Amino acid sequence: MLCEEVSLPRKTLKVGTCQAVAGELSYGSYEGPKLPTGSADDLAVVIAQGRRDGPVLWLTANIHGNEVAGIVVLHRLLSGDLTRDLQGTIVCIPSLNPAGLRTNKRHPYYDDRDPNRTFPGVRRDTGEAREPTVYERLSSRLLEDIHASADYYVDLHCASILSIPYSIRDRVLYREESEKADAQALSDRLDEMVAAFGFPAVIEYRLKSYIAKELHRSTTGAALQELRLPAFTVELGAHTVADEHAVSAGVIGLRNLLRWAKMLPGAAEAMPPIPQFPSSQRFRREDGGYPSVTGIADYRIKPGDSVKNGTVIAQLRDLWGRPIQDGTVKVTADSWVLGIEDGILAYPGASLAHFAVAETSPVVEAWPDEVR
């Protein structure tokens, strides 16, 4: 009998204590922040390596501790027979925030910054020296290790309690005109990658908002802008719970992404029914529905709805049920509803929902001069 021809991985891959072994799932840990109680918040690491050489895909989840569905998606993906057909290597970190996972909180209790805004990237000069925070130190090490081995990267998140599954891809930014062509090629590759995953995809906020919100210092933002690595974010519906529909779709999305990257054989699997955009044009993520006064919001929309400019998305009442002013909150552009904010409390300046709106500006842009 002829032995199956194999092409073993070109180099050994180790992340933390997890050593990749061809044809197997390997388990280990990545050194996390040291705790005053004498232990450490180490991160679990799983590496799936095929017997044939191929790309390296990094997958992470749960950087916000109450966004848990991604953990379940990765657990289901890492089945025992995955490495049988796998060509290349998958590096998984199921929870980037064990402290937040334990407490069901967005942030780790030892660092009050949003952990998904702590990765290396350009920052406005405040003129003041500042020591990196606990999580910034971890993020810096993680990005170095991603850079050392990754060909592609996907980070799994969840949105509000009432939201649909969708993907977010950032604009590709460049510093010099000579870099523009490479930036465009990276953007085209990213479009292919996001399309292969199969969720409806939005472009991140407009450039000024993107930088002001420090989204270039998120997991995939830093990987894309600093490492020039094709990377995007997946939103798996509701936080706090693992919605079965979103989880199943997320697993299929990752398997189809692996097929696109030629890491798994076969044709793409059919995606379970999830709401899709009303047209093939590009859409941008945008917050909207801003109340002018405080009140109780009675929503008149649901995730997946298409709404026209001027549509009433919520009625406002006081706690006794009396209308406040004209009693309405409206959208200011034709929009598609991605999700509704948690709760029913409305405050001036706080959006009631997250929308996808038509995007006509470039997805490849120069860094603004003030932050280059």
Describe this structure in words.
The chain has two domains: 14-260, Zn peptidases (Aminopeptidase); 283-358, RNA polymerase II/Efflux pump adaptor protein, barrel-sandwich hybrid domain (OB fold (Dihydrolipoamide Acetyltransferase, E2P), Beta Barrel). 22% of the residues lie in helices and 29% in strands. It has eight helices and 21 strands. α5 (180-197) packs across α8.
A few lines on this structure:
The protein has 372 residues and is α+β, with helices and mostly antiparallel strands. Helices cover 22% and strands 29% of the residues.
Topology:
Layout: E1 14-15, E2 18-19, E3 24-30, E4 43-49, E5 52-61, H1 69-77, H2 82-85, E6 87-93, H3 98-103, H4 134-149, E7 152-159, E8 162-163, E9 165-169, E10 172-174, H5 180-197, E11 201-203, H6 207-212, H7 219-225, E12 231-238, H8 244-260, E13 283-288, E14 295-299, E15 306-307, E16 312-317, E17 323-330, E18 335-340, E19 345-346, E20 353-358, E21 364-366
Parallel strand pairs: 5-6, 5-7, 7-12, 9-11, 10-21
Antiparallel strand pairs: 1-2, 3-4, 4-6, 8-18, 9-12, 13-20, 14-16, 14-19, 15-18, 16-17, 18-20
